């Protein structure tokens, strides 16, 4: 029936193809029942309505770069791949707004508006491959979200095919929609509230002045302290990234950006804005880093050097492949002021489980990305990886942190939600999900642990907040 | 059960219907709650300030002025910017009205990291999280901003703070606001009134002087907010503001101030009919007008809520019996 509308070329059920869509870039694998490739809102609505009539669960998918299993089909779900809906529909340079289809690649949008002196601010490390629709699903971040905010701050309106096949416009170009902020709750809902088919995003003007600094520390504790000290000095850099010793060496071996191979940690800090402010902030950051024990602070002299430093940062995950064949990338946020103790705890946990740990992360907003590196063929290693990951999450929560800063919950962290939320908190979230999708066909089994609905979580002590 | 929210929770649980009341500065927004609704109050006070994390946690009834004073000691601020600083934090969030620095500082909803709510049945639930970046679970704080007290009583909120600008200067600007906006890197506000265009620049002195000189800005006072017994705000696509303000000029009994690049137009009138005409301007241009004060016979929203059935289902999750602020929004009627 789907093939009658979309054509056989756009409805696929070959075992090999289904295998390709059985997981995202994370570790959780599922099973796709069917994969289809709609090319318009009407086609998505048709597919979703058909899935509803037959009680078939469905999952929206961009390019599958997610790491939390958000796009992993559970139990033979229908995969709705949106990669063919990849048109930039409209750019209004005066209003600084672009309408895009969900399959537009993040970096393609910034490239398409670069000649107008504009850019799309959220810049996940996967921005060359990930889609705007996927970014909306996970409320994606990136290094430059420190000052300019994550995806939710940049999405003005979303056209959504709801779980019953109806099409609704959530939010709008005007500043406020009447009633509840449905756009706000939809962003970051990981496909559990429907499928975004058209998105209006805010474009930002390119800053007139940019400075990029590389601060070199012989002790990671000092680097972490410098992060807090910069913020305490009243400066919110455009980006503030940290790489630890292992990551710095791996990257330097990989791209040769002139990073100090003997540093215990480096900070990559960028400030932008108007000339004098950027100049003052650069001087202040150099002084703060030196006061916190930096061995050297290098200020990129030109755009080429700046690009090299950013290439180094964004190559980190590629560089890891040279150390061991497999890695598990975590994502958690802790208060900036707890970075020192949490990073220490992460090393200790990895050590205890006999795993190599590297850290490359968005230090400015406390968004840790511990990377466990290993050889998956080694017997029993996955058990250790999962045990270490669980302990790392618990350490982050104990420090006042949260489960995810930008990757989402998906399948990966679904069962850890009870670490952060009481049974009552989760019952409200489950209720909102049900309000959007009473039949629970939109990306089932994601985000909320089984039994989140009212009264089903009796094993968890409630009222922890009262 | 013990703790800071027990009194509020017990009162909500016991009452047949309730309406959360703060300082009463925004209480005309939305329909008048039924007279039988019992007023409830959140506790007040700053709970925690973390300057190096740029976060602050306050109880709901803390006034925006007290929050601002507490953050000023750390050279920080939360740009809630209510019309009257006596407004409580919970009331400001609940009303959902962003201040007039929205162009540069973003909408109110971007400020809220975590909320603690007392639900209609007295349960205390938390949404969001305390860190500056967080995608753990659904973004309940954004849903709560602007919900007009219909989802729960906001008893606590954790907000993102930011460095207070060293210099904050208002200017009068010559000519076409689109051209002025294009000529400035990141103005904090660009406000257009019937007589003049005003710009707020924040940052350091040297940058502000260079920006101001380049496009011929002249130092001036902040423009007054339109004032009168009957007030409201238009929400329109900002690219329609040229046409909207041209229409508003025809109504000389309506004072107005448009936030360029944002799409909010603040309006005030001496007579309710002025607000009604401003609403017609808004709807003609695809927008709507929220009544903020006065004009008791004017519909508070004058527009259908988008996806209203969905909105009603969401409200019922928090308040199955329509117990919270009954009468304030159409979706709670007959729930």
Q: What's the total number of strands of chain B?
A: 17
- What is the makeup of the main sheet of chain B? 8 strands, antiparallel
Beta strand % of chain B: 25-35%
Count the DSSP helices of chain B. Answer: 10
Low-confidence stretches of chain A: 455-466
Overall radius of gyration of chain A: 22 Å
Tally of alpha and pi helices of chain A = 16
Mean pLDDT reading of chain B: 95
The pLDDT mean of chain A sits at 94
Shape of chain A: globular
Q: Tell me the span between the first and last alpha carbons of chain B.
A: 30 Å
Q: What's the story with the biggest beta sheet of chain A?
A: 7 strands, antiparallel
What is the rounded distance between the termini of chain A? 53 Å
Order of helices and strands of chain B: HEEEEHEHHEEHEEEHEEHEEHEEHEH
Question: What is the helix fraction of residues of chain B, given as a range?
Answer: 25-40%
The secondary structure category of chain A is: alpha+beta
Written overview of the protein:
The complex is a heterodimer of chains A (466) and B (335). By secondary structure, chain A is α+β, with helices and mostly antiparallel strands. Helix content of chain A is 34%, strand content 21%. Chain A is built from 16 helices and 20 strands. In chain A, the strands form five sheets. A seven-stranded antiparallel beta sheet of chain A has the order 15-12-14-13-18-20-16, sandwiched between helices. In chain A, a hairpin with a 5-residue loop joins strand 8 (155-161) and strand 9 (167-171). In chain A, helix 8 packs across helix 10 (275-291), helix 8 packs antiparallel against helix 13 and helix 13 (339-352) runs antiparallel to helix 14 (381-398). The longest helix of chain A has 18 residues, at 381-398. By secondary structure, chain B is of the alpha+beta class. Chain B is 25% helix and 25% strand. Chain B contains ten helices and 17 strands. The relative contact order of chain B is 0.14. Classes of the chains: A alpha+beta (466), B alpha+beta (335). Chains A and B meet through strand 9, helix 7, helix 8, helix 10 and helix 16 of A and strand 7, helix 5, strand 9, helix 7 and helix 10 of B.
């Amino acid at each position: 029936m789907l093939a009658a509308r979309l054509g056989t070329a756009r409805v696929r059920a070959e075992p090999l193809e289904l295998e390709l869509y059985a997981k995202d870039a994370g570790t959780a694998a599922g099973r796709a029942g069917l994969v289809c490739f709609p090319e318009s809102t009407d086609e998505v609505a048709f597919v979703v309505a058909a899935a509803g009539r037959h009680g078939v669960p469905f999952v929206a998918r961009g390019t599958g770069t997610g790491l939390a299993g958000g796009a992993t089909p559970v139990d033979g779900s229908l995969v709705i791949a949106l990669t063919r809906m990849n048109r930039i529909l409209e750019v209004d340079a005066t209003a600084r707004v672009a309408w895009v289809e969900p399959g537009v690649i993040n970096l393609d949008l910034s490239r398409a508006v670069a000649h107008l002196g504009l850019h799309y601010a959220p810049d996940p490390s996967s921005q060359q491959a990930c889609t705007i629709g996927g970014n909306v699903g996970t409320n994606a971040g990136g290094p430059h979200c420190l000052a300019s905010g994550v995806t939710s701050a940049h999405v003005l309106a979303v056209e959504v095919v709801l779980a019953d096949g109806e099409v609704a416009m959530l939010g709008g170009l005007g500043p406020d929609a009447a009633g509840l902020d449905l756009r706000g709750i939809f962003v970051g809902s990981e496909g559990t509230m429907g499928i975004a088919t058209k998105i209006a995003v805010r474009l930002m003007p390119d800053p007139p002045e940019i400075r990029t600094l590389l601060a070199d520390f012989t002790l990671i504790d000092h680097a972490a302290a410098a992060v807090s000290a910069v913020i305490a000095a009243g400066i919110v850099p455009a980006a503030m990234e940290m790489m630890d010793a292992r990551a710095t060496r791996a990257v330097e071996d990989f791209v040769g950006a002139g990073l100090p191979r003997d540093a215990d940690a480096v900070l990559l800090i960028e400030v932008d804005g108007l000339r004098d402010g950027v100049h003052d902030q650069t001087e202040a950051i150099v002084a703060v880093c030196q006061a916190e024990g930096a061995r050297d602070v290098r200020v990129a002299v030109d755009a080429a050097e700046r690009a090299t430093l950013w290439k180094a940062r964004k190559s980190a995950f590629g560089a890891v492949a040279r150390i061991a064949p497999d890695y598990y990338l975590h994502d958690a946020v802790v208060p900036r002021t707890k970075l020192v103790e949490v990073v220490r705890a992460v090393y200790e946990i990895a050590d205890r489980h006999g795993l190599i740990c590297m850290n490359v992360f968005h230090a400015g907003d406390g968004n840790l990305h511990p990377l466990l590196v290993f050889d998956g063929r080694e017997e029993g290693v996955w058990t250790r990886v999962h045990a270490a990951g669980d302990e790392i999450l618990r350490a982050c929560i104990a420090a006042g942190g949260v489960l995810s800063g930008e990757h989402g919950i998906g399948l990966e962290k679904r069962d850890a939600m009870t670490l952060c939320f009481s049974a009552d908190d989760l019952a409200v979230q489950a209720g909102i999900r049900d309000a959007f999708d009473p039949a629970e066909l939109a990306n089932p089994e994601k985000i909320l642990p089984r039994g989140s609905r009212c009264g089903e979580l009796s094993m968890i002590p409630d009222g922890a907040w009262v | 059960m013990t703790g800071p929210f027990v009194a509020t929770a017990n009162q909500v649980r016991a009452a047949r219907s309730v309406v959360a009341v703060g300082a009463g500065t925004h209480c005309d927004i939305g329909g008048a709650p039924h007279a039988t609704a019992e007023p409830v109050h959140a506790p007040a006070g700053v709970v925690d300030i973390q300057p190096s994390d740029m976060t602050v946690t306050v109880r709901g009834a803390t006034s925006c002025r007290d929050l601002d004073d507490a953050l000023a000691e750390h050279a920080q601020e939360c740009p809630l910017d209510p019309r009257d600083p006596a407004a409580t934090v919970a009331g400001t969030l609940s009303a959902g009205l962003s201040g007039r620095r929205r162009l540069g500082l973003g909408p109110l909803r971007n400020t809220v990291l975590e909320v603690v709510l007392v639900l209609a049945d007295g349960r205390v639930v938390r949404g969001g999280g305390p860190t500056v970046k967080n995608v753990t679970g659904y973004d309940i704080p954004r849903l709560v901003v602007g919900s007009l007290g219909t989802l729960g009583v906001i008893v606590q909120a954790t907000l993102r703070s930011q460095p207070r600008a060293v210099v904050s200067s208002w200017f009068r600007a010559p000519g076409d606001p689109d051209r002025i906006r294009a000529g400035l890197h990141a103005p904090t506000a660009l406000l257009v009134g019937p007589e003049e265009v005003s710009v707020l620049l924040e940052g350091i002195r040297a940058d502000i002087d260079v920006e101001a000189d380049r496009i011929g800005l002249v130092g001036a006072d902040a423009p007054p907010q339109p004032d009168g017994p009957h007030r409201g705000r238009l929400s329109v696509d900002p690219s329609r503001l040229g046409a909207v303000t041209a229409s508003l000029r025809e109504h000389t009994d309506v004072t107005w101030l448009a936030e360029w690049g944002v799409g909010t137009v603040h309006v005030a009138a001496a007579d309710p009919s002025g607000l009604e005409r401003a609403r017609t301007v808004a709807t003609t241009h695809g927008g709507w007008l929220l009544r903020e004060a006065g004009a008791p016979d004017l519909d508070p929203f004058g527009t259908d809520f988008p996806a209203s059935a969905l909105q009603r289902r969401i409200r019922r999750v928090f308040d199955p019996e329509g117990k919270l602020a009954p009468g304030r929004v159409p979706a709670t009627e007959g729930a």
